[in-house]
């Protein structure tokens, strides 16, 4: 007198696909998305066509594996190609500008970088302590552990003065 549970397999396939989509939203690696599509098309599709439970599972497994090994690598390649590499952590500090906040004594001082961090600094080999006073703009040339090596920042090119060889516009009035 128990109902045939295979009549309700469609609920299992929909629930499984929904679970895979939720997990995919947390991982963002396309693995569970491929499993969800395999469950929907393979499992639910064969169920709706009236296939037996073992064929539903087999179709879902085969389709999921096929998608994992063919479509997923293509999607990952496209996703990674469109994003450019962004320097982070220590790599982001190379070339960053800053200002000297503590005078250099025996080649060691302190600088506040443009990202707001204050670092212990030392001057490059060809510089003397007097070359970088407090407030001087510097650029990070190397990171040595918890110390940055700095060099004076290149001075920006002076801005061109406005051109004065063009005559001023004539003022027009509608007075009459």
UniProtKB/TrEMBL annotation:
Protein name from the UniProt record: NfeD family protein
Keywords: Membrane, Transmembrane, Transmembrane helix
Subcellular location: Membrane
Topology of this chain in the membrane: Multi-pass membrane protein
Ranges where the record places region Disordered: 151-176
Keyword Membrane on entry: yes
Any one cellular-component term (Gene Ontology): plasma membrane
TM annotation in the entry: 12-41, 53-75
PANTHER family for this protein: INNER MEMBRANE PROTEIN YBBJ
């Amino acid at each position: 007198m128990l109902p045939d549970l295979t009549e309700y397999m469609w609920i299992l396939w929909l629930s499984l696909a929904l679970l895979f989509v939720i997990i995919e939203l947390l991982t963002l690696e396309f693995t569970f998305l491929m499993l969800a599509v395999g469950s929907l098309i393979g499992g639910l599709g064969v169920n709706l066509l009236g296939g037996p439970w073992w064929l539903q599972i087999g179709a879902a497994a085969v389709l999921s594996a096929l998608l994992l090994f063919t479509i997923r690598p293509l999607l990952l390649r496209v996703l990674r190609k469109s994003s450019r590499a962004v320097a982070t952590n220590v790599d982001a500090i190379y070339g960053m500008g800053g200002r000297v906040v503590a005078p250099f004594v025996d080649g060691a001082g302190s600088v506040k970088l443009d990202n707001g961090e204050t670092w212990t600094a030392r001057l490059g080999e060809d510089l003397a302590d007097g070359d970088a006073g407090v407030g001087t703009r510097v650029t990070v040339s190397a990171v040595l552990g918890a110390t940055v090596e700095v060099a004076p920042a290149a001075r920006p090119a002076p801005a061109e003065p406005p051109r004065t060889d063009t005559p001023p516009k004539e003022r027009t009035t509608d007075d009459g």
